[in-house]
Write a structure and sequence with these properties.
- The chain has a single domain (about 40-310), classed as TIM Barrel, CATH 3.20.20.150.
- The protein has an eight-stranded parallel beta sheet with strand order 2-1-8-7-6-5-4-3.
- Residues about 1-40 have low confidence and may be disordered.
- The chain has about 325 residues and is an alpha/beta fold.
- It starts with a helix and ends with a helix.
- α3 packs parallel to α4, α3 (about 60-70) packs across α13 (about 295-310) and α10 (about 220-230) runs parallel beside α12 (about 265-275).
- The longest helix is centred in the middle third of the chain and has 21 residues, at about 115-135.
- The protein has helices at about 5-20, 25, 60-70, 85-95, 115-135, 155-165, 170-175, 190-200, 215, 220-230, 245-250, 265-275, 295-310; strands spanning about 45-50, 75, 100, 140-145, 180, 205-210, 235-240, 280-285.
Length: about 325
């Protein structure tokens, strides 16, 4: 059952306090648990978000896959809506896996829009991503569920996005693909307790959370989010963020930092992932590339090698 506006507003500060007090139970509801994951063995596979490929318009899909293979990556995260034949050919040629697919329509056609036609386009994009994932052998798709702004209230975004996503849950369950919700500074789902609640209300093992480590540093501490979200986490983005650059140069400049040079407490983050039993892939989403370095050098030295260091912490 979707959340009504009046029920959301009734939650208030007392409701949020009760929610905080029940954080432990949020992590332990058996019927809300997602697919059992293998015990974390100290290593993760390295994936790369294709949309962040350096000079991406200069290379074909197959060239990008080959360069990622040479740099030492195990997998690739493409956007939805690409040529499936080209992606599958590149996958077969390189042997790289495709663990996840990023929905390409969630910004242009958010599921929180008051316009039914926009929501329909967003839902079509979500459906395409699910079928892309199925074709590629991916187990997860990344979805930004909605955006809160001056024209879309918080509670409307909550209600509308859940209503639309529920329409695709049966297909996700049929295909064995998890719809993983990501927090990306969209003014929505601003705490880990609320994120857990949002996921749990679908009552499906095929709705989870896509945890972007760098996105959370501006509003909190990633390791705390991991502790609360626990087995809801279906995939993670590896991203760096500097609070100092944010304060000195502006909000978005916080991302302009190399791995291991920002404010992520990687030992604490990796310990939290181990405690959560997370395994599988860490997907690189680098938001910064220094000048004067080739794409090949960047992929190997600035990303793949640094991810190896992080994963050993």
């Amino acid at each position: 059952m979707s959340m009504r506006r009046k029920d959301f507003l009734k939650l208030g500060s007392s409701g949020m306090a009760a929610l905080a007090a029940g954080a432990g139970s949020l992590k332990l509801k058996p019927k809300m648990m997602h697919k059992q994951k293998p015990v974390f063995n100290g290593t993760l596979k390295k994936g790369y978000m294709l949309d962040t490929f350096p000079n991406r318009n200069d290379f074909s899909i197959s060239e990008k896959f080959r360069m990622l293979k040479t740099a030492g990556f195990d997998g690739v995260e493409p956007a939805s809506g690409l040529s499936r034949d080209e992606v599958l050919a590149a996958k077969a040629e390189t042997g790289l896996e495709i663990p996840s697919v990023c929905v390409s329509t969630h910004w242009a056609s958010p599921l929180s829009s008051p316009d039914a036609e926009v929501r329909r386009a967003g839902l079509d994009g979500l459906e395409t991503a699910l079928y892309d994932a199925d074709a590629y052998g991916a187990s997860v798709i990344l979805l930004v569920p909605g955006v809160v702004n001056a024209d879309v209230s918080y509670d409307d975004a909550y209600r509308r996005s859940q209503e639309e996503i529920r329409k695709m849950v049966p297909l996700a369950e049929e295909l064995g693909v998890t719809i993983a919700i990501e927090n990306v500074w969209n003014h929505f789902l601003l705490s880990p307790l609320e994120a857990a609640r949002y996921v749990d209300e679908f009552e499906s093992p095929n709705v989870g959370w896509y945890f972007d480590i760098g996105n959370i540093v501006n509003m909190g501490w990633p390791e705390q989010w991991i502790d609360i979200l626990g087995p809801r986490i279906a995939m993670i983005h590896i991203k760096e963020f500097s609070r100092q650059k944010r304060d000195d140069e502006g909000l978005w400049r916080g991302f302009r930092v190399n791995y291991l040079e920002g404010d992520n407490n990687w030992p604490a983050i990796m310990a939290a992932l181990r405690n959560a039993g997370y395994s599988g892939y860490g997907i690189a989403e680098p938001a910064y590339r220094p000048e004067g370095i080739s794409p090949e050098e960047f992929l190997k030295q600035n990303v793949a090698d640094k991810m190896d260091e992080i994963f050993r912490m």
